[in-house]
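User: what does the whole thing look like in 3D?
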Amino acid sequence: MMRQAACGLLLLLATAGTASADPDGQSFDQISRGRYLAALGDCAACHTIPGGPLYGGGRPLETPFGTLLAPNLTPDRETGIGAWTEEQFVAALRDGKFPGGHLYPAMPYTYYTRMTRDDALAIRAYLATVEPVRNDVVANQLPFPFGIRASMVGWNELFFTPGEFKPVAGKSAEWNRGAYLVEGLGHCGMCHTEKNFLGGDHTSRALQGGVLQGWFSPNVTGDAHTGVGGWSVDDIVEYLQTGHNRIAAATGPMSEVITNSTSKLDHEDLAAIATYLKDTAPQSGAAPVPLAANDAAMRAGAAVYTDHCAACHAAAGTGIVGLFPSLKGSSSVQSVDATSLIRVVLEGAQSVATDPAPTGASMPSFGWKLNDDQIAAAITYIRNSWGNAASPVSAGDVGKSRKQLSQATP
Amino acid sequence: MSISRRDLLTGTALSLTFSLASAQARTIAGALPWEPEAAIPPPRVEPGPWQFFTADEAAAVEAIADRLIPPDPETPGGKDAGCAVFIDRQLAGPYGSARALYMRPPFREGTPQQGQQSPLTPAMRYRQGLAALDKYCRQAFGGKAFAQLPDEQKDKVLTGMQKGPIVFEGASAPALFEQLLNNTREGFFADPTYGGNRNMVGWKMIGFPGARYDYRDWVDRHNERYPLPPVGIGGTRA
Amino acid sequence: MTRRLPSTDAVIIGLGWTGSILAEALTRAGLNVVAIERGPWRDTATDFPTTYAQDELRYHIRHDLFLRPRQETFTFRHNANETALPMRAWGSFMPPNGVGGGGVHWNAETWRFLPSDFQQRSHNIERYGKNFLPDDMTIQDWGITYDDIEPYYDRFEYLCGTSGIAGNVKGVIKEGGNPFEGPRSREYPTPGQKQPFGPTLFAKAAIETGFKPFPQPSGNLSQAYTNPLGVTLGPCTYCGFCEWFGCGNYSKASPQTTILPVLVRRQNFQARTQCEVVKINLDKSGKRATGVTYIDSNGESWEQPAELVLLCAFQLFNVHMLLSSGIGQPYNPSTNEGVIGRNYSYQVTSSVNAFFEDKIFNPFISSGSIGMCVDDFNGDNFDHGELGFIGGGYIGAVQTNGRPLQSTNLPAGSPSWGADWKKLVKENYLRTYQTVTHGGCCSYRDAYLDLDPTYTDAFGRKLLRINFDFHPNELKMSQYLTDRVADITQKMGPKHMDKFPRTGPYNSTIYQTTHTCGGVVMGADPKTSALNRYLQSWDVPNLFVTGASAFPQNAGYNPTNTVAALAFMAGDAIVNQYLKAPGRPLVQA
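Assistant: Here's the predicted 3D structure for the full assembly of 1237 residues, as C-alpha cells:
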C-alpha cells in the first residue's frame, strides 16, 4: 500500500532532525512540488515494487542487456539515499553519476538532465519525507561485459547530451513548458523513440514510436496519420488524464504510466504536453494509399472482422466511446509498426481504469481461436478500411509474434 | 489465480467445458484482475479413435443416429454429421460421469415431477443400455446386431423402445431412448467444435447463423432471410 | 480448527446484485467491507467473452455458469404425502454461483411491481371480499407502499441504464409505455430497444385487439450509457445468447458492467472468492450476529468477525443459511407458527407456439429482454369478479433466442425423430414464433421451505426441502392468461397454434423460471414476517437479509428490479439510520 505523502509530512513536522526539516510554508511548497514532480517523472514505476514499500527499490528492469534492480530511494542512511548530499542527488538525475560510479541509462538521466536544479531539489526534499526502508539492493545484475559501469563513459560520449532545458525563443510559454516536460521529466522518448542496437535514441526519429518489451509505443508527434496530429489538445489531455478519449484507450505499459503519472498531473501541464507534441515534426511523406477493398486479403479480413470483431468495434469501425476504441481514424491502428496490434489480438488487452473512467473494459484473447492468416487479414483490413491506410500485415508477422509471446517471461 | 490459457485438446479432457475444477480461493482488491491470454475455450474435438465406445457400441450409436436423424439429399444424417463422435467425447468427459450432479444415496423412486433418481450416470446408461439393446436384437432377429437390421426394422425397434412394448433386460429401454434422442440432437445442433454438426450441416439446414454476435444492422429488417453463412466458435465459416 | 480473522465493519455473504449494491453503499459511507462469495470471480473478457460465450451446449445444456447440484442442492416434494427427494440435476430453476450471481446470466427483464401488488391482501379483500380468497392462501401486505420504493426502482434503472418507454410519469399517462404501471418520477435512462419482426407483428395484432403494447423494460441496452458511478455500458447487439449466458460486450446490466469496476478500486473493499459461508455466528444471547464462518477452497475453516452481517445470497440459500444457523423460528405448517421458510412462492408461466406459412422471424436476432408486452391482465388491472382467481401476469412476444436445441418447436402431435421430424424442423425453424405469459404466484399454508431429514450436502448440513405445488388459483390464472395471449397471437395470422397453459402438478424437471421467492419475508408483523421494511431481521438487528426471500408472495413480473430496489432501500437505511445507532432495531414491531 502506498503511503500518503501527508503521513510523511506529519513525520517530518513531528520529529526534528530528519532531512531538511524547516517547517515553514516554503519547505511545504517544495515538498509538495517534489511529490508532483516525482509523479511526473513516474519514479515509482521503477523504484517501487507493486504492493511494496514506496520507493523501497528492488524492482527488476529487463533491458536488452540484462537485468537491473532499481535502487532504494528512501531516506534510509545505509541502504537508501539518506546519506547523499544535494550535489550527489542532482548529479544522479542530471549527469548520470552516483557515489558508486556511472548509472545505466535505464535510469532516464538522458532525459532528466533537462530538469532544473530547483526541480531536482524539490524531488529530493519530497523523497526525504518518505518512510525509510531498509533494503540493500544490488542494482547491477548485468552480465559481463555490460556489468562494468565504466563502460558507460563511451556510451555517454555517443548518446548523452547533458544540459538543462533551454526555452526556445519564438515559442509560447505553454509550448516551452510542454517541451520541458516531454523532453525532461516526462521522458516520453524512453519508450516512444526508437532505439539503436546500443540502446541509444534514434534522435532523428524522436517520438515517432519504438518497440520495447514486445509492445510498439506509438508515434506521438503531430503526424496526422500515425501520430496525435488528428487529436485536439483536449483529446490528448483527456487521454493522459483518464486513459480514454473519443478514439483511444490505453493498454499495456501505458496503463501504468497513466495510473501512476499522467493522471496526477494538472490540466495546465497536460495541455502544455499536448501543445508541444502536436507541434513536433511529423514524418515526411504522404500517407500510404489504402489497399483496395477487393484485394484478397481485404476480402478475407472483412469476413473475419464481420464475424469476430464487429460486435464490439462495430461494422463501421467506430467502436463505443469509453468502452471499445475506434479503429476508424485511429493513429495506433495505422502505426508503421503493427506489433501492438498483433499482440492485442493474440492475447487480449485490458484498458486502464482511472477514477474518472473506471470501466476498464477488456478485449478477449483471439490467439486460440483465429489462425495467423485470419489475424493477418483482419488487421490488414482494419488498417485499410473506413479511410485508414497502412501497410498490410502478413501471416508470418503474426506467427513471429505468437512465438515471441510464448517465449516471453510472464 | 491464474486462469491459465488452456491448450486446445483433441477430444480428451472435456473437463474444460466444466468449471468443476476446483479453483483456488483468492482475494480481489484494488483492481479488476486480468491476465493475458486468459480464456477457457471449449475443446476442439478432432476425428480419431473412439474414447468411450467400443467398436460395436459405436456402430450401434451411429446406426441409431442415422435413424433418429436420417440422411436426405439435402442434409446428412446423424452419422455423417458426427453425432456418434460427439456423444463419444461427451461420455468420456464429466458429462458422462455425471460429475456435476448430486449423486448421494439413498436413491428412491419418486413421482415423475421429482426427476431422475437413478445412480446411473450417462456413461453407465449407455454401457448397460447398449448391451441390453444388443442382446435384445440378437435374440429377436436371429443373431443380428442393431446396425445390421434393415432401416424399417431399426425404426420399429426404436419406436418400441420409446413407447413400448420393448423391454430390455438389465436396463430401461425408454430411458436409453430418451438419452439417445437428446444426445443425438445435441450432437446435430451443438457447435461443431464438440465433434458433431460437422461442417455446420445442422445449422445450415435450419438457417441458424451460429456463433455470430452482432445483428444490429438486421433488427429492423423484418421478414427477410439472413444471408450470411453460419460461423463456429472455432473461428471459421461453414 | 477454525482460525479467527481480524474483525471488519461489515461482512457480505454472496457477491451478486444485492451484495454489490450494498457493498458499494457501505464502502462509500466509509465502512470496511469484506464480501465472501462461494463461487469464482467472473469477468467479461475471461469468463464470457465474445469468442466463446455463444455456446448453447456449454451454457444452456450443460449449465456451465451455474451452481452444480453436487456442490449444493435441495430436496423437493409436492406435499406431506410424498417423501422429498433430491434435485439431482437442475430443472425448473437454475441457482446461480459466482461473483455477479444471477446478475450475470439473467435476461435483464427489469419490471416494477404494481402499486396494488404491495398491498395484495388488503387490496383484493377490499375489492372482492374476504371470501374471495381461499382459506389456505397466506398472501400478505409487504409493509411498504409503491411510493416508498419508487425512488429505489429509479435508482436501479439508472444504475443499469434500463431501456424502455415510460407509461406513467408523475401521474401523466404517456403514449407507447405501459399505461398500468405505477407513476414513475422520470423517463427511462435509455429508449426502448428496437424490436425484431416477431414482437412487431404481435404489437400490431395487440393494437388491433384493443390493447396498448409497449416494449419490455430491458437491461439489454438500446444504446451506450454511462451510469452515475461512471461505469460505461455498450449497446446490445441482439446476439440471442442472453439468459443463461454472460454478456460478451458489456451491454447487459450486471454487477460486472455497473458496479464492480468502481467497487474493487475502493481501498476499504475486499472480495474473497471460492469461499463458502456455512454459518452465521451469534453471541450467547442469540440476538447479535458476531460474524460468519466460512470454508475456503482447501477445506480450511475461518471465522470472519463483523459488526454487521448482510446475507445477500440467492433466495433459497438465504433460507437455508438461517435455518442452518438457528436464526429465527422455523415455520411449522401444522401449527402455522414460525417464519423462516414460510410463504414460499414461485412464478407461473405459460406459452403459445404459433406456426406460420409465409413469415421469416430470424429468431436468433434477439435479446433477453426483447419483446412487446401487454399488461392488461396483470395484478388487479382487470375485474376478477367472475373469474374465480386473483393475480395475473404480463403477456407478450418475448422470444429471446433462436438457439437450435431450444428452438425446434413443432406443432403438437409431430414426430420427435425420423425423416418427417427432420423435414418439419427444417421447414418450421424460421417460421415459428412463441408468445408467453408470466403470472404471479400466491403463497399458501402448505408452500414452504424447511430442512430435509435425510439428505445432506458436502459440508454435512441438511439440505433445504422445498414443499410446493400449484394451487387452483394459479392454474386458473394461467389458463386465462394463456387464452388472452392466444387471442392476440391468432391475429398474427399463423396457420397453426398450440397453447400450453401451466398445469399441475408442479414439475421440478422442466425449466420455468428461477423466480423462487419467500421464506424470509418482510412485513409489519414479526409473527408473520422475518424482516422489517428495511430487510432488518426482527430477531437479530445487526443482520439484514436481501433478495426475493423477502417477498411475501410473488407478483406477475420478473423480480430483479424489486429485489434491487429493496436492497437500495436497505442500504440507505443502514447508512442514514442504522449506523447512527448500530445494533438497534429500525422499526418497533
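In plain terms: Residues 55-100+119-203 of chain B form one domain. The radius of gyration of chain B is 21 Å.
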